[in-house]
Amino acid sequence: MSDNKTDALRNWLIVLPFIFILFLIAVFLAFVNVEGLSTEQRLDYGTKALTTTGTIFAGIAVFINAFYAAKRAEAMDKSAEAANKSAEAANKSAEAALKNAEAAQDKQITERFAKAIEQLGNEKIETRLGAIYTLERIAKDSKDDHWTIMEVLTAFVRENAPRKQDEEKAENAKLLIKPEVIEQKPKLQTDIQAALTVIGRRKSKNDPKNQWLDLRNIDIRGADLTKVKMQGANLMEANLQWAVFEEAKLQGAFLSGANLRRANLWEAKLQKAVFKRANLQEACFEEANLEGTDLDGANLQEAFLIGANLYEAKNLEQEQIEEAIGDRTTILPENLQLPEHWKAQVSPSELEH
């Protein structure tokens, strides 16, 4: 329909100039042939008539041009409005699609989460392992579920690897009675190790403020916790004998009453950690940063402190230091003296030279 109107308008625009010219000629001839007038008057009236007619036609042309210009503007406005409505509709459609996708994803995550929780209690260890790694993937995919999953995994460790202090005391007594018995490094249950690994390599930046990993009273002897991120973790009263914490991040961790006998904390970051009454006997703290730690009542007998930084350590007594193994590279608080037997100790770096 609009194409037919455009063609008709184009045809009229082509015909109008010819009509205008013919009309001018007719007006001119009409005035030129008027009787009773001189030739000069006829020409004068004809010229004026042509001028007047031209002005009238020019006005009509201006009016027509203005009319169609307004029509074009109106058409453009309607086109722009239609485009805006189309864009708004597309945006609403996209928003609806996004919400639907998010809802579908949330539903999928919820279903995966529920299934994984159910599988954690399965008798088969391979099923439990699958559940642990499924929870890890969910924690990576969904920031909102990150901390909930960490709480689930720490609860799994607490429930399945509780510290049994009576058994621990019996084993220690056996070693005292029969010193010839060689203490073997224990092997941690595979699913417990997997849960600790997932906890230790989580995206710690997603941890909520003022929330800490709760790993109290657990028995994870021999665990491999190399490079774990457990800043501020609560490991009070935990049995961590033989555990490997090499290059681990344990700043501000609570280890009061923990058993770290023969644990390996080489180059671990332990600033402001709390070791009150902890058993650090024979533990390796080589090159570890213990700056500002609380060592009140901690057992440092034969603890390896070569290259360790104990600057501004709290509640550390000279007697504790005397029982430890260190050398001139060990940094002590200003109120403590380097033991005499340390001064004679040769550090591994000096042996290399």
Notes on the protein architecture:
The model has no long low-confidence stretch (mean pLDDT 84). Helix 1 (2-32) runs antiparallel to helix 2 and helix 3 (125-141) runs antiparallel to helix 4 (143-160). The chain has helices at residues 2-32, 39-120, 125-141, 143-160, 165-177, 190-200, 318-323, 340-343, 348-352. The protein has 2 domains: 2-117; 130-353, E3 ubiquitin-protein ligase SopA (Pectate Lyase C-like, 3 Solenoid). It is built from 9 helices and no strands. With 353 residues, the chain is mainly alpha-helical.
Layout of helices and strands, plus pairs?
Elements (H helix, E strand, L loop, with lengths): L1 H31 L6 H82 L4 H17 L1 H18 L4 H13 L12 H11 L117 H6 L16 H4 L4 H5 L1
Helix pairs in contact: 1-2, 2-3, 3-4, 3-6, 4-6
Give a brief outline of the structure.
With 353 residues, this protein is an all-alpha fold. The chain has helices at 2-32, 39-120, 125-141, 143-160, 165-177, 190-200, 318-323, 340-343, 348-352.
Biggest sheet details? none
Mean pLDDT: 84
**Number of beta strands:** 0
Low-confidence runs? none
Strand content: under 5%
CATH architecture of the largest domain: 3 Solenoid
Number of helices: 9
Give the N-to-C terminal Cα separation: 98 Å
> What is the CATH H-level superfamily of the largest domain?
E3 ubiquitin-protein ligase SopA
Class by SSE composition = mainly alpha
Helix content: 40-55%
Element string (H = helix, E = strand)? HHHHHHHHH
